[in-house]
Amino acid sequence: VGQGIFISDIQEGSSAEKNGLEIGEMILSVNKETLIGVGYDKASQTLRRADGVIQLVLSNPKKKQDTDDNLGSTSANPSLPRTPDHQNLAAETPVKSVKPADPADCEIVPGTRTTIEVNSDNKNLGFHFVGGPNSFIPKGIVVNDIYKNCAVEKDNRLKIGDEIIEINGECIDKADNISTVVTLIKQKTAKTKMVVYRPDTVETLNVNAEVVHKAAKPFGFILRERQCGSGIYISEII
C-alpha cells in the first residue's frame, strides 16, 4: 500500500468502533481532503478540524490480500467465471461515514485527546490550573481544583489531573504568557469547547521544601483549601 496514515487502535465504544472501522485500515481522505503523503501532525489537525458527520475513504490491505487470494482460486476453476466485478473488487475502496462523539455529552477517554463542550452560560468555567507557558507543563494546563456550583462541576466530566490542550480553538502552547491563558479561561461564552487529554494514571511527586521566614513578614504565597477532594495548595505567589 505504501506510506500513509493507518488506524493503530480503536477505543471500545467509540464512534469508530460503532461504524465498523478496523485496525490496520489506511485513511486516504477525510471529507474529500486527501491524507496521502501527509505527515502525522497534518493528518491529526485534519481529523480534529472535522465536525459533524465525517466521510472517510479507507483502504484495507488485509481485505485486498484476501480478495486476491480468492480471485486466484476462482480463476483456477472454470465453473466460476472471472467477471468484471471480480476484477475490480480488489481495487474498490470503502467509503464510510463516521459520526463523531457529541462533545456536549461524550465521555473523556483516558489516553486519548477528547473534545468536549461545556455549557458555560456566559459565566466562569470554575477551575484552578497549573502549568502553561514558561512552566514545567508548557504545552497545556492541568486541572488542579474544581470550584463548587460552577460550569465545569455541573458538567461533571473534567477531573483533577486532566490536561487541557485547547480552549475554543486556541492552543495553550501558542499562548505568549500565562495571562493569555487566564484570559482564555475567563472569557464568558454560552458554550466552551475544550480539547482534553486524560492520562491513564496521574503521577504525584513528594517534595520537601524549606522556606526561610522572618518574623512579622508574610510567607509570600496564598494557600487555598481544595474544593474538589482534600488538601490545600498554593494558589498564588505574592
UniProtKB/TrEMBL annotation:
<feature type="compositionally biased region" description="Polar residues">
    <location>
        <begin position="70"/>
        <end position="80"/>
    </location>
</feature>
<dbReference type="InterPro" id="IPR001478">
    <property type="entry name" value="PDZ"/>
</dbReference>
<feature type="domain" description="PDZ">
    <location>
        <begin position="1"/>
        <end position="62"/>
    </location>
</feature>
<dbReference type="InterPro" id="IPR051342">
    <property type="entry name" value="PDZ_scaffold"/>
</dbReference>
<feature type="region of interest" description="Disordered">
    <location>
        <begin position="60"/>
        <end position="88"/>
    </location>
</feature>
<dbReference type="Pfam" id="PF00595">
    <property type="entry name" value="PDZ"/>
</dbReference>
<feature type="domain" description="PDZ">
    <location>
        <begin position="115"/>
        <end position="200"/>
    </location>
</feature>
<dbReference type="InterPro" id="IPR036034">
    <property type="entry name" value="PDZ_sf"/>
</dbReference>
<protein>
    <recommendedName>
        <fullName>PDZ domain-containing protein</fullName>
    </recommendedName>
</protein>
